[in-house]
């Protein structure tokens, strides 16, 4: 019997089968993509979407999702150009004030009250005695021209000659029935009476320095007489301070 051809024939067939099986095992599985499932959907089922593998992060480098989140969290800046004016704050808004500032050009009411000039009427002249820049030869009209209308006005009873009194801030002026000045009296130490720098409340020695030696000097008053007038300074004998300053006519 001739068995050799049959054995060779079957040997060749087995060799072809082995080679074919080896080729199929070396082929990639269904051209699989990274991150996708290798199982095919059964008939009547919807294929599941491929599962996205988590992104690998390098050390010290934020992920793209984190970078996008940071970018979206940034505040949107106003699109202002250099030529656009800054928005103005409405009147009455919080943090704004609308107050009038007090300056030297805007004096307080007390500063606006008229006083004797430091250059022309603050020097006492015995030949032309005056107080507050007023003389006994002045009238109501001249007083109002210098000091405007008084703060108050009242009558002083006098059997011989009733007097009308104008009261200003820091001094008073009395007028006789002919509207002439009868007396002037200083009532405040904060006002300049026009006596060479002497003020109410100063000492007797200050009066002698400013006005010289008085014609009469008692423990209670100093008298300076000139041209039918008397400048009288009432004095506190205990403290030797000047309590009042008056200018009036000598009674005959």
UniProtKB/TrEMBL annotation:
The keyword Signal applies. Residues 1-29 form the signal peptide. Keywords: Signal. Residues 102-123 have a biased composition (Polar residues). It comes from the Bacteria. Residues 30-139 are annotated as: Disordered. This is DUF4309 domain-containing protein. It comes from Paenibacillus ginsengarvi.
